[in-house]
Amino acid sequence: MTVTLETVSKVVGGQAHLKDVSLTFERGAVNVLLGATLAGKTTLMRIMAGLDTPSTGRVLVDGQDVTGVPVRRRNVAMVYQQFINYPMFTVYDNIASPLRIARATRAEVERRVRAAAELLHLEPYLKRKPQELSGGQQQRTAIARALVKGAALVLLDEPLANLDYKLREELREELPRIFRETGAVLVYATTEPTEALLLGGRTATVHEGRVTQFGPTLEVYRRPVDLTTARAFSDPPLNTMPVQKTGNQVRLATGNFPAGGTLAGLADGEYTIALRPHHLALAPPTPDAVGLGGTVTVSEITGSESYVHLKVAGHNWVALVRGIQEFEPGTRLDIYLDPTRLFVFDVRGNLAAAPAVAAAA
Amino acid sequence: MARIEFRTLAHAYRPAPAQPDDYALKELTHVWEDGGAYALLGPSGCGKTTLLNIISGLVAPTRGQVFFGDTDVTGLPTEKRNIAQVFQFPVVYDTLTVFENLAFPLRNRGVPKARIDERVRQVAAMLDLERDLGRRARGLTADVQQKISLGRGLVRSDVAAILFDEPLTIIDPQLKWELRSKLKALHREFKVTMIYVTHDQTEALTFADQVVVMYEGRVVQSGRPEELFERPAHTFVGYFIGSPGMNVVPCEVAGNRALVNGHAIALSRSYPAMPAGARIELGVRPEFVTLAPAGQGLPVRIERIDDLGGIAIARTRLAELRINVVVSHPGVMQGDQAGLVMDPARVNIYADGQLVA
Fold this sequence. Notes:
The complex is a heterodimer of chains A (about 350) and B (about 350).
Chain A: E1 2-12, E2 15-26, E3 31-34, H1 41-49, E4 56-61, E5 64-65, E6 76-79, H2 91-101, H3 106-119, H4 135-148, E7 153-157, H5 165-181, E8 185-190, H6 193-199, E9 202-207, E10 210-216, H7 217-222, H8 227-232, E11 239-246, E12 249-252, E13 255-258, E14 269-275, E15 280-281, E16 290-301, E17 305-312, E18 315-322, E19 332-337, E20 343-345, E21 351-353, H9 357-360
Parallel strand pairs in A: 3-8, 3-9, 6-7, 7-8
Antiparallel strand pairs in A: 1-2, 1-4, 4-5, 9-10, 11-12, 11-14, 12-13, 14-20, 15-19, 16-17, 16-19, 17-18, 20-21
Chain B: E1 4-11, E2 25-32, E3 37-41, H1 48-56, E4 63-68, E5 71-72, E6 83-86, H2 98-108, H3 113-126, H4 142-154, E7 161-165, H5 173-190, E8 194-198, H6 201-207, E9 210-215, E10 218-223, H7 225-230, H8 235-240, E11 247-250, E12 252-254, E13 257-260, E14 263-266, E15 280-284, E16 289-292, E17 298-307, E18 312-318, E19 321-327, E20 337-342, E21 348-351, E22 354-355
Parallel strand pairs in B: 3-8, 3-9, 6-7, 7-8
Antiparallel strand pairs in B: 1-2, 1-4, 4-5, 9-10, 11-15, 12-13, 13-14, 15-21, 16-20, 17-18, 17-20, 18-19, 21-22
Helix pairs in contact in B: 2-3, 2-4
């Protein structure tokens, strides 16, 4: 099965919530919608579910136009950020509810509830009521109910956002496996780049109502088509700097450096260079590394690594470095970048050069 | 500002508590030094919010006392404690401007107008709120509203401590970074005691000088971030801090060797005999384990490689045991057999969950 959005737009009270979105989702791998709060992810899902209709454009399921078909006549399941379960039902009855509504036989209900409970490690809790469960168990119950429905389309809208960090980590690890085992088309919305990477599959980056890129998750991460996508897919934030390339030299506000690495083959002109925090170093990583002077604003220690926040040529940068690196604010230091790891964007923000895959890691 | 001290504090929500399980917060004596940056880290239900509410006076402890400096404040209501609080959801006066929101605690105390003006502008400058001072709070984004909540705590020079209860939960990841490093800078600037409650290890470790880890109503370790990372005092700390957490596997210890599933692992020193009947475990972080060709170290099978862009995590398996390994360039594939080598200096031994010193 495939679900296709064809030039979908949504305008609410004169405000454009979605602009000209075209996407095709297939089964097999999870489809991630990655973007900030209010970027349009939930609006997209509501349109796919049939809870809302698009202002223009169409929704197709296996090529059939379903744009006006209401949610109750579609084969859709949805999991929300808030855990939604029936408080008076046991976990078993919660999971069984869509099957009973569909008048499945007793044996069928039993078989499918057991299978879903096993997948989500809920077997020990089947006789409990939702309020006797932890948040993670409650959300697993909601996910099990969505899966047991056998829906052709399962929409998960930031399902782990209200869970503890550690529970989120565990469920994230389990979810890709669970998803692979269902035959449904899965769409999963998140604000977190790390979550997208852990889920794998394919990612669509959503920014201010537009889809900026859609492709295999690691490919979007490693070859973002524009600066907006690169920013949306960076946590901690991407470090950027406008530069001027003239011949074999690159000029920035505070000085020049040789136009090596990914900058080498580019025509002269203005660009924005960008690199990820873990590609900055406190000592030259290679003989060709470029040192830039910076001033520390704050350093944060995680126990095994440090985030050093700096002002570099007037821009706020953050470096993720190994070990405990504590600096007083105001400390001046040189920060090094490897020019083969630079992303380069042109003046319109489109990708001009990206690191080779090995260097993009 | 004040040093905050708990003396044999305990709290139970149910009446007439008898056994330890009845207590949401088990007996605790603890000092929060004046001007410190503390994080209170633990999962839902571990007692961290109870502890925070005891400091602020929202909860009266079942037993023990709370001191601010030399004053016993156990019986004092919240408004007499000079505590500022920032909650998960921003608390702002919608119809007031940002300036009026920030000035509110000072006007309430009858501070002269010129002084209010000076102080509000100073705090607004630190929080990058200067351009918003004339705007109404309604309709501002969550991160700006949360800055206002924080600013209301900072304008008061008499505040004993600022308490944060999961303040960044509803903030988008990118803005979280900005707000968190801002908070750290503000702490350095104002030197006010800050206690920050969170279940998010990154927030706790990056913000705090001292991280207090709570588990089932107890403080299981209190220390600097690197201590918690390198020498977790309890297997729970090892699991909860780090992503993925520390690998914990059952073992036997004989002198300077540990046996895991019958395979010997070198330890950095010789251990005395373990307490009889105790659950003995070996803990090692995924960062301190390396993959070698099959034949060396523990014979494992690679179940899966999770490529996270910057690093990859190899999920390996030794019979029923699962061991995670952080790798920069995998060099192995799913299904491969490999050897797993641990850095002996980084291997910790635990008896019934507690670090064997």
